[in-house]
Protein 1
Amino acid sequence: MSTASESPVITAPRGTHLHCKGWVQEAALRMLMNNLDPEVAERPEDLVVYGGLGKAARNWDCFHAIVKELKHLNDDETLLVQSGKPVGVVKTHPDAPRVLIANSNLVPKWATWEVFRELDQKGLMMYGQMTAGSWIYIGSQGIVQGTYETFAEAARQHFKGTLAGTWTLTAGLGGMGGAQPLAVTMNGGVCLAIDVDQTRIQKRLDTRYLDEWTDNLDTALALVQQYVDAHEARSIGLLGNAAEILPEILKRGLLPDLVTDQTSAHDEYNGYIPAGLSLDQAAVMRKAEPEAYVQRALSSMRTHVEAMIEFQRRGSVTFDYGNNIRAQAQRAGCENAFAFPGFVPAFIRPLFCKGIGPFRWAALSGDPEDIAVTDAAMMELFPENEGMIRWLKAAKEKIAFQGLPARICWIGAGERHKAGLMFNELVKSGRVKAPIVIGRDHLDSGSVASPNRETEAMKDGSDAVSDWPLLNAMTAVGGGASWVSLHHGGGVGMGYSQHSGVVIVADGTERASRCISRVLWNDPAMGVFRHADAGYEIAQEHADAIGLHVPMKAQ
Ligand code: NAD
């Protein structure tokens, strides 16, 4: 088995030369490799893409074996991947998925981090997070529009539509959390983002998600004051531990306008650094005293959440940003950990009711010009969607590509299949130089059951019902997606979520057009079904508006 020191540097091939027997297999190969590109992945040497321990393949042997299988896979075969390891090839047909993936799934009674870690250490499992193990991660851009939409909605609800003259206090500048400073400044505000790891801060500076940094709290707070007074949109990274710095800011009597957090709190062992420890000390203690480490991390999360609750009490708009920190603090004895809401019920659910969520695509040519062509074509296809047009223009100006050029764009049911078919035409007519890969996050409208996040506080109390992601994955397979995945534990950790992923390749063929028209209609429709069934009127109205049949519509 390869060790980290022997790890190769991976970048996806570009251009039109095929290494596989078809473009769908080639797309899977390139997107797997793209997930591990050093520009994209947080710790590529350990195959870690983002989100704590979210991996693209179980180990380097498995990675090489997947690559080999994809290169030999025929158009009537399907590769099976079990928690990052290729385990079989089955006979299918050209319209069927070329890869089926299951990651981190455990029988519910055993679905804990303890059991997972035991299996992981024996080499029997890996943590797939959401888009890491399903090979459709596109770097921090993949989350930035969702983060932008969240802060935009917070601005509409609480700050008359703009964050100008406000400051946001948060932590976590990792793969996903790194989008926070850019999303806040795109909404006009000032962001103070704490991270304990200087390399993460540097990565966000390099990719222009973060404007400047300091390791001194006094300097950071003075800069915040200066930019807030000037109504200047600006982000500051602060090197430090959130569980130490939040209580200190409270002690000084300062009150941020918004408070949230995106440390990898979902994983108390690998994701969250306890207060009082440097990164190196944490690494030593994690190995030497794993149980004590976990207790210390949970206790720090309690301190962290208690500070967030106190900020809320004093008047800050405070919300959980999808890392399960409230449940973790509750485990450590914080009884009112759920005093502040999650971001989905607070800001995002109305979008989910219409199947709107993080649609995305990547240019397999590797040429940024292909994304410029798709951006322009999207604006032409949806001229009435002003929010989308504003986003695409801002993204073009502000977002640095990581790995293969890609674009995120939140659109919904009744729109995604049109976009997919249009991309297929662009490939067929040669207006883009190679096929386009189309996918989405699992953090979407109809693909996830996660009671502390996407399905928190559902209108009918169905938060923990996980039939929906299973139905979602089955519809994707039935419709002929290029690869489909079923995961457990993404975003919020083991035992807390089940979710599915779908990717489809627009290669300009008739087959692709057939599959796209089914898959990209059905997939967001699942979100509308899920929310209509839970009694949301917006979802029921949207179903009527786009002609979606809901058998037992609520009266
Ligand atoms: P990541 O592991 O890449 O980054 C986490 C960062 O937190 C690291 O940079 C780490 O140094 C920092 N950190 C850890 N403990 C800290 C502490 N005590 N103080 C300060 N910094 C600390 O993870 P990511 O991909 O950025 O995801 C972050 C969290 O958000 C995860 O829990 C993930 O599951 C969740 N998530 C949320 C969304 C969303 O839309 N809200 C989407 C995806 C993931």
Protein 2
Amino acid sequence: NKGKNRFEFYDANSDAVVAEKVKMEQAMRKAVEDDCKEFEVYYQPIMEFVNGIPTCCGAEALVRWNSPEYGLVLPDQFISQAEQLKLINSIGQHVLLEAAKSCKHWNDFGHPEYKVNVNLSVVQLTQSDFLDKLDMVLKQTAIDPQNLTLEVTESLAINDMERMIKLLDAIRAKGCRVALDDFGTGYSSLNYIRTMPLDTIKIDRAFVSDMNSDHFSEVFVKTISELADSLDVDVCVEGVEFDKQVDMIGKFSVNLAQGFFFDKPLTKEDFEKKYL
Ligand code: C2E
Ligand code: CA
Ligand code: CA
């Protein structure tokens, strides 16, 4: 706009960028104040290997922001901003409640074995009243707590491991399960599976996608699943896209898998059409 033969440095703090960010923040605030109705929960099936055959055993809840202004916004585009603004507490509670309601519905209509996984932000988990909010969801939905798994990442434990262990113990004391998400991407992963009370380890998709070309990734997935198996912890591999990967994990002690090979995240309606 300023004409040819000139250059300018890109500046993330330039007025236009800041203005755009502020605009999106306002829209997000408004969406939260409007009872989070624009935040839609999608469900990606989680498959369990039953006699080697992948069978749906539930789903991971993944939020999308269905914004009239921005269209369908994926979590990578708004979660960190929502965390900074603390809006994640309301959004996360909405997702937790919706997911628990859905799962209870599946359990009552032909699939008592289905479970639901919900991602928790560190901001959400470290609120002083998180456990009360979890209780409210359990009471309000009457879901069997065993069917509700809360997914946390290693970043949670970095600051205050002791506090984190207490929290996870309290969650499990209510009967809910805990999964460690994105395993292998943190910087002291093995220490976390040694110290954190866990029911499931989810191996990050980076290892799964490299498994067929990279010997290390193959050995990593195999070894972590054996370790988890001996510790009596479930293993879920994420990001399964090709049948070659299914063949390979079939030989390891992996019991759960998730990925586009089986299905992408679906609206509640589509998930129920296909899997209920
Ligand atoms: P995540 O928890 O690791 O979720 C898995 C992500 O991988 C999802 O992206 C899913 O759509 C994608 N995915 C699944 N299978 C495949 C595959 O085979 N190949 C590839 N390339 N990708 C696959 P999505 O839905 O965009 O979510 C991104 C991240 O946003 C999630 O990563 C999670 O960390 C976060 N997130 C999603 N929903 C929530 C939420 O309700 N609360 C919080 N705090 N975070 C959330
Ligand atoms: Ca997850
Ligand atoms: Ca993950």
